[in-house]
Design a protein that fits this description.
CATH class of one domain in chain A: Mainly Beta
Largest sheet of chain B: none
CATH topology of one domain in chain A: Thrombin, subunit H
CATH class of chain B: Mainly Alpha
Structural class of chain B: mainly alpha
CATH topology of chain B: Arp2/3 complex 21 kDa subunit ARPC3
Number of strands of chain B: 0
Helix content of chain B: over 70%
Largest sheet of chain A: 6 strands, antiparallel, barrel
CATH superfamily of one domain in chain A: Rod shape-determining protein MreC, domain 1
Helix content of chain A: 40-55%
Oligomer: heterodimer
Largest interface: A-B, 33 and 33 residues
Distance between the termini of chain B: 36 Å
Chain lengths: 315, 192
């Protein structure tokens, strides 16, 4: 009895395996139009409607499971997209900063070409700190004595004059802006010869005052105010001539001198990249500076203004 | 289980369950990927039929389900039949020789059946000249297929056992085991 069962079991196995191999061989060997293929197509024709019906009947089940899957997938996608948004936001901020720096550098480049400030050995620096105190108009830059920056070196950006160096460290420096009360700049209106001193207007830190102009000076709103290129008496600082400072907004008639209100060109509230003009020894500005200092008092151009400037505002 | 004790009811249940599961597989389960691969209920069904009904019925069920799958999915006829026949026979012999009673037996059987199915199918396809390289991706898919099939093995086992329970004849060995438990002093009821 046992042998019979075993024999039958083995016979069934062998039969099924052989049948499978025969099917496989025959199907694999025959052309697509063969009998087995035809049987398969016929079976498909028969079961297609059943499959279709089953498919429709089971659609809610599939949708239910699909909903779970989609929800999990959506959550995964959401988390991934959040990470992407954070990353892109960071990149956008960096890009904006780089774009701003690029425009400033481009402006500086144009200004360089226009004014030939390359002769003054400009050192490009990045503003790394702005004094939060409204009483002091100073910024900190990332270049200092190690880069050739010296006290009282003029600082410009693509729009015009920014200020001058008032503190120097090895790897950084503090720049007092032209709106700071300690800064005074010899300047003139347009192409005229008359010079005066630009200083902040008391009570209005965003407006400059070009004062000590001769009474007969012709000035009208809209004219540009530029540096006159004179030398301060108290130090070697030299503002190259022709650097834009601002635009005349109004003219004040006074008894002894004439003064004009000036709106600065440089956006001093949003500084990023600046240039420090480091006129090293031997350069044209340095030589001019040396020559000017060697002259007797009163012979250098704009001497009165310089003296006045040196009393409270070196420049 | 010898062939002589097979009832028509059991054969009918196996056939109905096979057709139903194959259509559910094609219509629903194949469209719900888990970890990037679809669960394949067919080898689990064949293995569990073998585990419940023995080697002969397991092999027959394997051949039939394989043929149904090959026909319905328009695959090379005979490939799935051959693999499923071996799976059904092996799981049936496992029951006949070892009669494993551990709760995790279906899990292990399901994993092995899935592995044999996936690897065997790949090997035969390669032998038939399918132009596909043996890559890490392929191996990963096979491994993932085994994992997801193992995950669903227990529910499928419960379903198959439930469906075939009424048609299964009384197993003498299990009957003896049950009798020993209830009359051998081990049952709390026997102490009263």
């Amino acid at each position: 009895m046992y042998d019979k069962t075993v024999r039958r079991r083995r016979a069934v196995l062998v039969l099924l395996v052989v049948l499978s191999l025969l099917l496989l061989t025959a199907y694999f060997g025959e052309a697509p139009g063969g009998r087995l293929h035809a049987v398969q197509r016929g079976f498909l024709t028969v079961v297609s409607p059943i499959q279709d019906g089953a498919n429709k009947a089971l659609k809610p089940v599939r949708d239910l499971f699909g909903w779970f899957g989609d929800t999990l997938h959506a959550k995964g996608q959401r988390n991934e997209l959040r990470k992407q948004v954070e990353k892109l936001r960071g990149e956008q901020v960096a890009d904006q900063a780089e774009k701003r720096s690029y425009h400033e550098l481009l402006s500086l480049f144009h200004l360089d070409n226009q004014l030939s400030v390359a002769n003054y050995h400009p050192v490009t620096a990045t503003v790394v700190g702005i004094t939060p105190n409204i009483w002091y108009s100073t910024v900190t830059i990332d270049k200092g004595g190690a880069d050739g920056v010296r006290l009282n070196d003029p600082v410009i950006n693509g729009e015009g004059l920014v200020g001058k160096v008032t503190q120097v460290a090895s790897d950084g420096a503090q720049v007092s802006l032209i709106t700071d009360s300690t800064v005074g700049v010899s300047a003139r209106i347009g192409t005229g010869n008359a010079t005066g001193i630009v200083q902040p207007k008391v009570g209005d830190p965003n407006t400059l005052l070009l004062q000590y102009l001769p009474v007969n000076t012709q000035a009208s709103p809209g004219e540009n105010v530029v540096t006159s290129g004179t030398v301060a008496a108290s130090d070697n600082s030299l503002y190259p001539p022709g650097i834009p400072i601002g635009q005349v907004t109004s003219v004040n008639e006074e008894s002894a001198y004439k003064s004009v209100n000036v709106r600065p060109f440089a956006n001093l509230h949003n500084l990023d990249v600046v240039q420090v003009l480091t006129s090293v020894a031997g350069s044209l500005p340095a030589n001019l500076s040396k020559l000017a200092l060697g002259l007797p008092a009163g012979q250098s151009s704009g001497a009165s203004g310089e003296r006045l400037a040196s009393t409270g505002a070196a420049g | 289980m010898s062939g002589s004790h097979v009832s028509g009811s059991l054969l009918l249940r196996i056939a109905a369950l096979s057709v139903a599961l194959v259509f559910v597989q094609i219509g629903v389960v194949s469209e719900l990927p888990l970890f990037g691969v679809s669960v394949d209920l067919s080898p689990l069904l064949v293995a569990f039929v073998g585990l419940l009904c023995g080697s002969t019925l397991g092999a027959l069920a394997g051949f039939s389900v394989g043929l149904l799958v090959d026909l319905a999915l328009v695959q090379t006829l005979g490939v799935t039949s051959l693999i499923f026949t071996l799976i059904g026979y092996w799981s049936g012999r496992l029951r006949e020789l070892r009669d494993p009673q551990a709760a995790l037996t279906p899990l292990l059987v399901g994993a092995i059946a899935s592995a044999v199915s996936l690897v065997g199918y790949s090997v035969i396809e390669f032998l038939l000249g399918v132009d596909a390289p043996v890559s890490f991706v392929l191996l990963r898919q096979i491994l993932l297929g085994i994992v997801v099939n193992t995950i669903v093995a227990m529910p499928v086992w419960a379903l198959v056992r439930r469906a075939l329970e009424g048609g299964l004849p009384e197993d003498p060995r299990r009957r003896r085991r049950r009798r020993a438990y209830t009359t051998g002093g081990l049952s709390p009821l026997s102490r009263t």
